[in-house]
């Protein structure tokens, strides 16, 4: 069995963690309406990247780092996190439809 591959940077790990959380929430709520935001937390020492879906929140912390905090970075974080989360949800829907079609074929075989 192959070991789980590490992605790399803390930012990549944070985006993966956020997409995993959103995926779990989506499976429980069956909605695709997602909003993403980024803001400062813990006395402005960390960035919080948050996704809200079906009234539930998923979030990951991220160190500010040398880049600091400004509106341009906030907008970029929101855009990038939104892209990752939406792509993850698209893949989840595609996979669910594929599995449903394959199970349908198996069930049809027993008619």
Could you characterize the architecture of this molecule?
This protein has 111 residues and is an alpha+beta fold. The protein is 53% helix and 22% strand. Strands 1-2-3 form a 3-stranded antiparallel beta sheet, with helices on one face. The chain is elongated and about 65 Å long. The model has no long low-confidence stretch (mean pLDDT 89).
Task: Give me the secondary-structure topology.
Blueprint: H1 10-29, E1 34-41, E2 46-53, E3 56-63, H2 71-109
Antiparallel strand pairs: 1-2, 2-3
Helix pairs in contact: 1-2
Q: What is the makeup of the main sheet?
A: 3 strands, antiparallel
Quaternary? single chain
Q: Give the SSE order as H and E letters.
A: HEEEH
Query: What's the rounded overall pLDDT mean?
Result: 89
Please give the count of helices: 2
Q: Largest sheet, order of strands side by side? A: 1-2-3
Q: State which percent range the strand residues make up.
A: 15-25%
Return Rg in Å: 17 Å
Secondary-structure-derived class: alpha+beta
Distance between the termini: 37 Å
Q: Indicate the low-confidence ranges by residue numbers.
A: none
Helix content: 40-55%
Indicate the overall shape. Answer: elongated
β-strand number: 3
Short description:
The protein has 111 residues and is α+β, with helices and mostly antiparallel strands.
Keywords:
22% strand; alpha+beta; three-stranded antiparallel β-sheet; 111 residues; single chain
């Amino acid at each position: 069995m192959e070991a789980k591959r590490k992605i790399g940077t803390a930012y990549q790990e944070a985006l993966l963690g956020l997409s995993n959380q959103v995926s779990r929430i989506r499976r429980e709520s069956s909605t695709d309406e997602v909003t993403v935001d980024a803001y400062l937390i813990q006395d402005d020492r960390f960035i919080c990247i948050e996704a809200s879906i079906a009234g539930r929140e998923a979030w990951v912390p991220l160190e500010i780092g040398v880049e600091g905090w400004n509106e341009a970075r906030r907008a970029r974080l929101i855009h990038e996190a939104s892209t990752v989360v939406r792509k993850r949800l698209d893949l989840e829907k595609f996979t669910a439809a594929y599995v449903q079609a394959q199970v349908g074929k198996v069930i049809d075989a027993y008619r």
